[in-house]
Amino acid sequence: MRKTFTVRRALSAGIAAFAALSIAACSGGDGEGGHDMDSMESESAEADFNDADVMFLQMMIPHHEQAVEMADLAAEHAEDPEVVALAGQIAAAQQPEIDQMTALLEGWGEPTEMEGHEGMAMGGMATEEQMTELSAAHGADFDKLFVDLMIAHHEGAVTMAEEHHAEGQNADASAIATAVIDAQTAEIATLQEIQARL
Predict the structure, then answer these.
(1) How far are the Cα atoms of 35, 43, 78, 100, 147 from residue 187, in angstroms, in the given order?
(2) Exposed/middle/buried for 137, CB within 10 Å: 0-12, 13-18, 19+?
(3) Count: domains in the chain
């Protein structure tokens, strides 16, 4: 009887200890699992993108690159101080956006250049002939041509950004589109003021 009681008591203690450990393990596992799940959902949300996001960034990169190229020409060819200052502002704003858009596409595993969409029109882009003419111009002639081309260029970028808001879904890409709309709409107003007095 004494031996049986001792065995039963040992078994009961063992079962209780096992149950306690199981509960603790399950509780810890659920908690850690919950954190992992939250982290995975957060990472998934950050990487959530669609074809419209990819196309917007792939098109906006060369669009920005041309604006920076035009702005760099102004540093050497422009005569009007306000044109020079605005060109510097444009380059300073758009180069970091190019870097950000490139990083986003690379982070998604997407190419930074368009594939199969080379013929798609990017609003406001200057033609090769216009860029050649701008490169050859100096002084007041450059100022007038630069302002005319940059107004059209900015208007095209704003339209592209607005279209992205209607079709894209990635938060980071949408933030870039908003920045483009805000900054370039304000710059269009300044360019139009300059245009009126040149």
Answers:
(1) 45, 35, 17, 21, 11
(2) middle
(3) 2
Distance of CA 37 to the CA centre of its chain: 26
Report the pLDDT value the prediction gives residue 120, as an integer from 0 to 100. Answer: 58
Residues 34 and 56 in one domain: no
Three-class secondary structure of residue 138 per DSSP = coil
Query: What is the distance of C-alpha 150 from the center of its chain?
Result: 22
Spatial distance between the Cα atoms of 90 and 27, rounded to a whole number of angstroms: 55
Same domain, 115 and 168: yes
Taking the C-alpha atoms of residue 41 and residue 36, their distance in angstroms, rounded to an integer, is 9
Residue 176 tokens read as 């870039």
Q: What is the pLDDT of residues 47-69, one digit of tens each?
A: 699 999 999 999 999 999 999 99
Q: Are residues 123 and 177 in the same domain?
A: yes
Residue type at 146 in one-letter notation = F
Q: What is the pLDDT of residues 114-146, one digit of tens each?
A: 875 454 568 899 999 999 999 999 999 999 999
Structure tokens at 121: 């029109």
Q: Which domain holds residue 178?
A: 47-197
> Any idea what DSSP says for residue 120?
S
Q: What is the CATH number of the domain that holds 95?
A: 1.20.1260.10
Closest CA to 57 of 153, 159, 160: 160
- Between CA 76 and CA 89 the distance in angstroms is 15
